[in-house]
Amino acid sequence: MITASRDGPDAWGCADHAIGVVDSNQSPVEAAKEAITVFWRMQVMEWEQPRWAYLFAEGLVDAKAANGWADEVWRPPEEETDGEGD
To answer: What is the pTM of this model?
Structure first.
């Protein structure tokens, strides 16, 4: 189970809550990436959640990986082209 932690119960009525359950055949990092990015995408789609601004601590997932995952979720939209060269 993957959980999200907050400073307090303001938003969800609890400081920690489950955001995903993963396949035991995945490595812990693969499982974390899947659960976390699905959760982030849901927040973007449902509430237009902006990207988080700070990573306060590293654990199983380091800052480089966490920022890479966030880049996948919050990548800027690709510019449309008119099909006539660049």
So the answer is: 0.74
